[in-house]
Amino acid sequence: MTNKQILAVDDEEDILELVQFNLLKEGYQVFCAASGNEALKLAGTHLPDLIVLDLMLPDIDGLEITKILKGEPKTKDIPIVMLTAKGEEADIVTGLELGADDYITKPFSPRILIARIRAVLRRKTKERLDDALSTKIHNITIHPGRREVLVDGHQVQLTFTEFGILEFLARRPGWVFTRFQIVDAIRGDDYPVTDRSVDVQIVGLRKKLGSAGKYIETVRGVGYRFRE
Q1: Which residues are registered as beta bridge partners of 154?
Q2: Less crowded by CB within 10 Å, the N or C end of the chain?
Q3: Domain end point (choices 77, 97, 131)
Q4: Residue 31 CA to its chain's centroid (Å)
Q5: What is the pLDDT of residues 77-114, one digit of tens each?
């Protein structure tokens, strides 16, 4: 992670220098900003891998900055670690709900800050790898790592079994599978099942997928397939 770029934002010079020093010592590339406007400009220009953001800034507060960054397609995926003296529960909840990935209160330990930054970067790297393994077919996107399904960009809530069936079929469009092959693939050989239980799962899955449910086709006398 030594090639990662981090934007540190704080209007207190000593805090900014402390954060910058510890990040540089760990091998990160660091950009610094002492105001909200400067932070927004640098974030849009450099697209850092992570932002360490103070909430109490002289012009635009950190919560508003977070809202702006998360609302822009170019910057919405940049992880944000909030570092602030505002430690009330309401502030923490608001920051996380706006899209912050972590929240550290002042006074802080530089070692803990670095550990939290590493954890966030690892998590984001894993999410990107999961996205690379995602399946996109027709108007359906399946993210295996997050166990998330999107239809026309809207999330669909599926059970564990429904997700497993959809992913199994969608990864092999056009292939026909028996009900027992489907169950073996998502649950293992020792899972007790009947033809009827698979049919019930398929019915529920089609219903949740809405118009996209038509892509799961019944092959009479055999089982199911996902339409190519």
Answers
A1: 151
A2: C
A3: 131
A4: 24
A5: 899 999 888 767 777 788 888 888 888 988 899 999 99
